[in-house]
Design brief:
The chain is built from eleven helices and 19 strands. It is α+β, with helices and mostly antiparallel strands. β2 and β3 form a beta hairpin. The structure holds adenosine-5'-triphosphate and magnesium ion (MG).
Length: 402
């Protein structure tokens, strides 16, 4: 029997919903997908519940209609500047007298790592496992091996309860369950940076409308995540102010004529702002448009450079820096990013097998949610369901839902 699963990203510009069918062999087939403009968000956080909920519900309804089926539960992306990531570590001594590692030992190390609770008013949204170390050696699965001490680590992301609760309620209002919360950056990276790139070390930057999501992988594991509350909306806002035009026209100019840095030929060429050349329409030079964009784009990558500091190490990032999200479609953005970050940057591609109409950078998060959700992220010896139920039960309890 195949299984139907859903995914939702409540994006700042668009709410996106996907319906996937998982075959018995684990293969994933996207059978429905829809986006709806979302006016209920600012910088990745819900500011108008009813508008955000209406956009998500319309997208879900359309995706379900396309698929000819319905979903009972979804994976939900999480972003917003309220999120905070840190490494939690735990260790345990091997209990048996012959020093053979048992599942129990591993679980003690895990509990120790997850012991620290976030501050009042905050909850964990995502724990991402890092390598298991047995007597200072990285091992895939220590169970059955001989050793004295196990160390485990989790890159753990906590967030503001109010923000998490709003997102969960958008879904429960549609009578759906949330299978799991997944960090937007990690979802996007699952789609655009395969295991080889993650092992080589890479940084994935998802340029959204309200936020820029970052995830950095070292040796295959998450070493850092971050959310910067600057995105394409800021570029549009700057154009609107700088050229004194309404935001919808600024957005249109950006998408049709925007470049991340001006090129010499732009000097002579003018474009019409509204485009119908009627009274009220006027023209601006392409250079004026790209000058405004350039300043904001440089500033964004400077923030990223400062935020990452010494993590931006060419020796640790042999897989490179990859751009995705709707904003990555801006011509020339990878060159500007490369100059500011001092490392090669490229636009991310999708793996083969993703249908061309879905393989668009703005879909990286919602597609990645399905793929990440289907993978097993539990500790060796632990059932996937155990880990997830435990985590979501706790969340449901915290928020009084479920
Ligand atoms: N061709 C293009 N050139 C430049 N920017 C573009 C282009 N196409 C889309 N964008 C920008 O991409 C952004 C939307 O991207 P995306 O759909 O990934 O964001 P989102 O998921 O809705 O928002 P967020 O992740 O910030 O909550 C908008 O700011 C839009 O202007
Ligand atoms: Mg997004």
């Amino acid at each position: 029997m195949s299984k139907i699963i859903g995914a939702v990203e409540i994006g700042t510009s668009q709410a996106k919903a996907l319906v996937g069918e998982v075959g018995e062999d684990g293969s994933l087939n996207v059978v429905g997908m829809a986006s709806r403009p979302n006016e209920g968000m600012r910088k990745g956080e819900i500011v108008d519940f009813r508008k955000a909920a209406a956009a998500v519900h319309a997208a879900l309804e359309e995706a379900e209609k396309m698929s000819g089926t319905t979903v009972d539960s979804v994976y939900l992306a999480q972003t917003g500047a309220h999120l905070d990531g840190q490494m939690l570590r735990g260790s345990a001594f091997v209990a048996s007298s012959d020093n053979r590692v048992a599942v129990d030992d591993l679980q003690r190390a895990e509990s120790e790592a997850k012991r620290r609770q976030p501050e009042t008013g905050r909850s964990y949204v995502h724990h991402v496992r890092t390598p298991i170390v047995l007597d200072e050696k990285v091992v895939e699965d220590p169970v059955g091996l001989i050793g004295k001490k196990i160390d485990v680590g989790y890159w753990s992301i906590d967030g503001d309860d109010q923000a998490i609760r709003s997102a969960l309620h958008v879904i429960s209002n549609y009578s759906l369950e949330v299978d799991d919360l997944i960090l937007s950056s990690i979802a996007s990276a699952t789609m655009v940076a395969g295991p080889d790139l993650r092992r080589a070390g890479s940084l994935v930057i998802d340029l959204g409308a309200g936020v820029t999501d970052l995830v950095l992988y070292h040796q295959g594991y998450v070493a850092y995540t971050g959310v910067i509350p600057v995105g394409g909306d800021h570029v549009t806002g700057d154009l609107s102010m700088g050229l004194r035009i309404l935001e919808p026209y600024a957005e249109k100019l950006k998408i049709e004529h925007g470049k991340a840095s001006p090129d010499p030929s732009d000097d002579e060429e003018d474009v019409w702002i509204i485009g119908n050349k009627t009274i009220g329409d006027r023209s601006v030079s392409r250079k004026a448009i790209s000058d405004v964009i350039h300043v904001r784009v440089v500033e964004l990558f400077e923030i990223i450079r400062k935020e990452l500091g010494s993590l931006l190490d060419a020796n640790e990032l042999k897989g490179g820096i990859l751009l995705t999200g709707g904003g990555s479609q801006m011509p020339g953005i990878e060159q500007v990013a490369g100059k500011v970050l001092g490392l090669p940057v490229r636009k991310a591609g999708f793996p083969p097998g993703i249908e061309p109409e879905l393989a668009q950078p703005e879909n990286a998060t919602v597609l990645g949610l399905l793929h990440y959700g289907l993978q097993d992220h539990s500790l060796p010896g632990q059932k996937k369901d155990q880990e997830q139920t435990g985590f979501l039960e706790k969340l449901a309890h915290t928020f009084g839902i479920g």
